[in-house]
Fold each of these.
Amino acid sequence: MKKLLLLPLLFFPVIVSLIFEYNYCYFDLFRYLNFFEGILFGTLIFGLISVLKIGKSRTALFIIFYILYAISSWAESSFYYLYGLNINPSTFFIVLRSNINETGEFLASNIDRPLMVFAIVMVLSLLLIIPYFIKQARFFSWFINPPKFQKRILIALIGVLVVTSTYRIADLLELNLPYRFITTAMEYSKQSTADQSITSRVGNFENSIRKRSENNETFVIVIGESLTRHHMSIYGYDRSTNPRLETIKDELLVFADVISPSTYTIPSLEKALTFSNYEDSTAVDKGSLIQLFNSVGFKTYWISNQQPLNESRNMVTEIAYAADETHFINMASNELSSSYDEML
């Protein structure tokens, strides 16, 4: 019974995070799901550690994972406090693209008193709880008496089956911070090792020549996500959905016979922004529009309301980072996104 009372201490980081979110954040059912996921993840990790027959190494593993468990809980709740969003692949992508100076500026401008108190409570809990657990010599075997190794293995397998099944059925895997970090790091590594010809500043346009104009030239390319001509009044739709464009219609060159090179956004943009096309998709390494403008002296910007990373390899992101300045303003997951294009 005494050992069962230790369980709240084991899950103390997620309990503190739940209390912090309840007091300082917009709180809904989704936060309870996140809390439940934290309990499940802790049960899985610490349950597996408890059945390992590796002596002192088991204690070391517990300390390492408990610290990571606390950091993970603090990071998730802190990010939700700041942005009202869960940490997602796009968040990690931005972090991996940042440097120490940018990180320092972010911390200096965003850390406030509630977050400082939250961090201090987490640190103090680690300093107090970890030594207490270490003193509990048989803590890691609280649910096995007597501690027969075969019985431990059986209980561990059943526990893993129950927890993983719950993750699968409740679709909680995307709420797990370590899982999101690992998958994003793998995707980032894949993109980082991609053909440098598309991510370098000028690509293959080193000898390009620009015909100079007496006036300063500014070119703006606007790309509309999920936009169809069937709902555009400038193409004959009966509702006035493009009133401003209609007033200058005589000044516009309106294309009426364009066919998309692909059925969805990323490969379509890949071909629209590079020299690849439907017939030759491998020509992407010949360069992009951004690299072409860079090569002749323009200062280029990429400002996007799209997430920089999704579940598939995102060539558009690689093209974007060839610009002199790249800004992704939307770090929400697709399901929770409420970032409208007016933000641009």
Amino acid sequence: MSAKDGKMDKFIKAVDKLTDSKGISKLGKTLNKTIDIAGNIISSTAEVTNHQIDERNKRHQFDIKLPDINGLSLDQTKDLFDSIGLKYAFVKVDPDIKLATTKTDTVMKTVPKPKTVLPAGGFVKVYYLDDEGLEESKRILADIIHKKQSRKDSAKALVNKVGHGTAIGANKVLKVSKKLVPHSKRSKKIKDSKDSDEIEK
């Protein structure tokens, strides 16, 4: 008898037990108990889940989604936050070159960011630029533009000075060389040096 035959015999015996009336009834009872247990687990899990959802909804029923208020005036912002029950503080931003063209007394940004969910009575920082900050930002921008222009002008002046100095220097060198060697002799010397170079080769 081979190993396959032994396994087959065991399988046949197991099937015979199941087909026996007692085996089928035991199987049916086991399935019924399993289904009852699974049903109880599912219903108790559903109750726990529903309870947790209800508790979460109770805790967050008064939460507020922070609206995007960038660009609103400070008065409009104050009215809005008072009506929805948020606490707030207005904070002046420091002058910066990027703010030289910004509107004053309007909301630039908020902390936390827009669309953040806050509890009722949550706190929001509202950043804005006032007139003094705008003037300072414009002054900073004007200073930077002036410095850039000064650097450009200095660079141009240096180039002109160097270029002018080079031209004057070259003219002086030519004048000196003409004084040292008269023109007629100079050309003769050049011819003589060429002839001597050719002879040496």
Amino acid sequence: IMANISWTEGVSNETATNVSSQLSLEAEFQYSLFTVIYSIVFVLGLIENVLALYLLSCKVKHTSHSYVYMINLALVDTLFVCVLPFKIHYHLHRNNWIFGDMACRITGTLYYINIYLSIAFFTCICVDRYIAALRPFTYIQIKLTHYVVVVTVLWVVALSVTVPLILGGPLHNSGVRNTVACFENFARRSWTYRMAPYNILALVFGFAIPFSIILISYPLIIRKISQIKHSIRKRKALRTIYIILVICTLCFLPYHLTHLLHFLMRIQVIQNEAFTNFIYKMRRVTLALVSFNCCLNPLLYYFTSSNKQWLVNFRLRFRSKMVYTICDQKFGESAGVYKLEQRPGNKKHRDGIN
């Protein structure tokens, strides 16, 4: 399936068809759109994520091991913004790639690694919050090692998928007006054979399943949090949840809906000319929009780490333990906890949210 389809082979076999289709799929606005959006994302994203890495790694006193997900999310966002200068130059010069084939392969794969590792880390945070809210006794048994193993597995899977793509042959192609396109404008043969497995895996395992987990888990978490009487702390906890939902809905959902349609268009399942033009233009818009996730993610770090202490007491006999809630601590403050303690002089014990 991962056929080594070279650039020259694709051009020699389908040049006329490919170039003519690209001429009909022009979106003049894309050059200024990508240049402006990527420039904004580069400046804001670099500052925010480098600062986030510094604070999360050195300054914040962590009481929940979920900070491992936050650090890796900030790391993958930092890698993403580092490739944006190449993308800015590419779009500023009307989609003409001048940096060579290997640079095209690396920058293109890093671009998509950001998208799917971000979704994966969001899902991990979601599952972590679900366990903390609904299974607190299970949550206290999860160790830092478990988080490190999960993160390592995600990175290994991401690299194992992308390395064959990088080594499988050129990913630049012949564009319109004698330009060189990078990571786009593939011939139909490439879309059907080489790129199809990646697109299907990305749509199903990279987005559909993780997004479904997020949509199913968070209503359960919200219902649990709603039982807490401390309104200010509850609002801050809910704000953390809403940020993840907003980022997924604003950045990732539109991109993957248009990506699915774009894939069907490229393998010629969709052939209506007016609709294909609309899909192509929406694809350009959502590609720019998805990059904003690395500017919005630092909001998640802030609201997850800035909630004040909120205390929930579970009174149990013969036992005293601390169970961290779904909220981490404010910079320099202790985190909210479930306090499990024996109630002296009372033979009966109860679980409750105070």
Amino acid sequence: MPSWNIHIAHAERLLKGGGSVARAVRDGNAFLFGNLIPDIYVGYMVPGVVRPVPYRVTHFAKPEHIPKPRAGEFFDAYVRPLARECGLLDALGDDCATGGGVGAPGFASGASGFVGADSDRAPVGPTGSAAAGDPALERSWRAPASLAAEVAHVSPAHTPTFEWDFDVAETAACQRDAFATSRRALSRDELRRSLFDMVLGTWVHLLADCTWNQAVSDLIDARGEQPSRDFRIKKQGDFDLFGKSLELDLMPRLTPQLIEVAAAFPQYEIDAASVSATCAIAHETVRTNHPVTGAAYRLLDEEFFSRVFAEVNARAEREMEYAGTR
């Protein structure tokens, strides 16, 4: 139900918020990409999917009019095992099992639960990469791309006085060289750590879908209505308007490392072409997301969207802190 601009906004605000989710993430690029994964092979967002995967599989949901992804089940199957394998949990007992519920207990930044990664996390900010001279520069593949940084980089080329000092016939070779230069094999520990961030992002996507869909279901019940084609059209139109109202800057950046991590996604491998297409679509989603004011909602309203959007991120932060309070 939420479109990619909404999912990207959730991920961006969590990364920049400095809360329990941000403290858990070292590879922001993998985390942001993970927030889009459940929709890749469904076939609606990414073109060229040869064999679409059913929504009930990608989203851990029962087939119904307004499906509720079982985020907790995904957490237990993929996030928790990787956290343990990466040494990110001190002791997370069976009493913290999610049982396939809506949410999932996660990590705390204190003495118990999640062991923070602040010391080696690539920065996430307006530049979208590590600052020059920063020791984290060599780890900049972990940072998402930034629209603001991209605009600052390309805008001078569109001024009347811009001059270039290279042969335009070599442009493609320059692009290939830049990609190849950043290529290096990840160590097993690096791969597993980035994979944890990716599945954590996927969990946030499922948690968001479940929270939004449950809120819509509750609204239908309160109004005594039944799901219908007219309801679906108005509802999705309202979601599109709300998504356009959000300020966006971050987007997943296509890197050799992201391709390598996506290929190791534990639920199913994600091929390189689909990773590239997903990054391109996310880029256009962010680039063309010009916020609108005074949206004329037909079914929902501003209070609904503000409340549920805040609830999704608060829930993600709360679930990540849960283990530390047991």
